[in-house]
Amino acid sequence: MIETIKDKDISEQNLNTINLGPTHPATHGIFQNVLTMDGEKIVHAESTVGYIHRAFEKLAERRPYNQITPITDRLNYCSSPINNFGWEMTVEKLLGVQTPKRVDYMRVIIMELARIADHVICNSILAVDCGALTGFTHIFQQREKIYEIYEGICGARLTTNIGRIGGFERDFSEKTWKQIKDFIVDFPKAFREYENLVNRNRIFMDRTIGTGPMSPEEALNYGFTGPNLRATGLDYDVRVMNPYSSYQDFDFTIPVGKQGDSYDRYMVRSAEMWNSISIIKQAMDKMPDGPYHADVPEFYLPPKEDVYTKMEALIYHFKIVMGETNVPIGEVYHSVEGANGELGFYLVSDGGRQPYRLHFRRPCFITYQAYAKMIEGSVLSDAIITMSSLNIIAGELDA
Amino acid sequence: MEFALLFKILIVVGVFVLTLLVALYSTWAERKVSAIMQDRIGPNRAGPFGLLQPLADGVKMFMKEEIIPGQANRALFILGPCLAMLTAGMTSAIIPWGDVITINPESVPFSEYFTFGESKTYIVQAADINIGILYAFGVVSVGVYGIMIGGWASNNKYSLLGAIRASSQMISYELAMGLSMIAVIMMTGSLSVREIVEQQDGFNWNIWYQPLGFIIFLICAFAETNRAPFDLPECETELIGGYHTEYSSMKLGFFLFAEYFNMFISCAIIAAVYFGGYNFPFMHDLGLSDNAIAIIGIFVFLGKVIFGILFFMWIRWTLPRFRYDQLMKLGWQILIPLAIVNLLFTGLGIIVFK
Known about the structure:
heterodimer, A: 399 residues, mainly alpha, Cytochrome-c3 Hydrogenase, chain B, 2 domains, three-stranded antiparallel β-sheet, B: 354 residues, two-stranded antiparallel ribbon, 2 strands, 3% strand
């Protein structure tokens, strides 16, 4: 039950109601906060969600498994590959498919690139919301390079629909490997420059330290995960706690904050980007040879030459394209460490061609519940910084 | 017709046109400077290097539909930007562009049509009032009314918040600004801008005597012109557009243009008061005539102003902005005490050294 403020209180205490959103420049996406203000101070806040609700969970109940991947693109569109792979791994878990190491490592590279892209956006937009635009334009060129890598792999940039159930649609090309190699050399330079500009800037620190604080207990009660939880000092990371896609093969640290304020969230994300670069390097070094997809002919499209020449391949091709392959009956939960926290897929299958029920555990939706509480008592400027540092993505919030 | 009058008219028109031009091209420079800083290209379509961009912007502003919100107070809504623009334009009168120019009646073409007074010297300044500094401060503080009225009349809560921020910010920072200026006035003993400039002959600039005062004045100038890191009244990420959220068309243009105007005025006052105005080092050792030095001085002054404007832009595109309470804290708890300390030390210095 949401506690609402009474009209009587507003008129008696001479308060003022303003709408932060749905179309406010600082709400990156569409969501509304009705703020009751005493001057610049927020007395009461009420969040509204659902402005871009597209009923993905319901849509998924009418689609064959391989056609659900494009839906997951639109959850957290800043790091869609993580969503794509998360979904594909969920289906693989249901089918009991073991993916080759090469696929795992390739996925790790792309997922860590996506994490960098997402954190780059969050951290640079936080600085923009503080009023510093220059760092953002510089670091955004690096995100562009990540998008070019996506483009080389799957042909799309934002809504990637990358990978297939069981692996990848094709191996990375020579050019892609070179792009990734260049990226892990160029990015640290550019990112260090950005950090020099922003991290120790006195005004930036004054603005973010102590803004939107969160205690570990409260964060756990709200169900925070990801960088927002780690900023409060808890070292929960799905990649380590419940490794998927061979994350146990890599050596990396879990950065944690102390106070759980905006600055800690910013710094945790920064440190994670350095970790991601190190993971990508390790994966490049260890990259094994082998097939780029698991042997699941019912789900993985056969090569076109075979479709034209072999009966079996033609049948599988037809069944996959028409979405006519059945799956085992069962219930699966699989979660990946998304850029904003634990991105979970709860899948119930009744054995048919489509899920009986699919639920996305969307970290933004869970984090956003705490937002109204976090900003009460602070000023309007802090509310905006807090929102930026939580990295609320409207697509993931509303699903 | 009296020649002095003609010269004055020429100067007034010239100063006005020059001020407008500098302010106009500040908008272009802002976009170009930010583009260079952000690794972009910036405007390059209208004319060579996008030099006609300000004209294109102006035409765009005039052509746009003018929207006045239904619940707004029409008269005040229109008065707001007018007042902002008017006060911004009025201050340029006291800016000393150059030293005196000596003109012999014989050397003037068509001299038979003019009458000449006793004095053969003419000043390159629209109005040399003996309380120039006071005038500038007075007019600038009226400028806040434009923002306040505009923000209030829009009948928008974000505009109102912006207007409140603007008024409290400008009033607070005017105190520190005035106090740091008083130290200069104590040293020079004059409120006339021309006399302050004249006392800084050659390289004897006030900045060497008033470094602290200069820094305080500079910070306050940023706050007075509502520019980053003090652009709280209009900060787009919090208040959408602040006081000009509801404005469109040329009325919006007036508000934006007034900001550039104010920036130019601030830079001109800084250049005149702290950086010796039209004086430049070794000006008397070059062996040039007084008139030549005066004309070089005009360009030197313009150069100093442009340097100041570029500095303003550099700061704007580098730093994040303050929060409202931090801004007030900086103004009242740091700058004003510092300005008073500066005042005391200046007084001490005057007693000891003069």
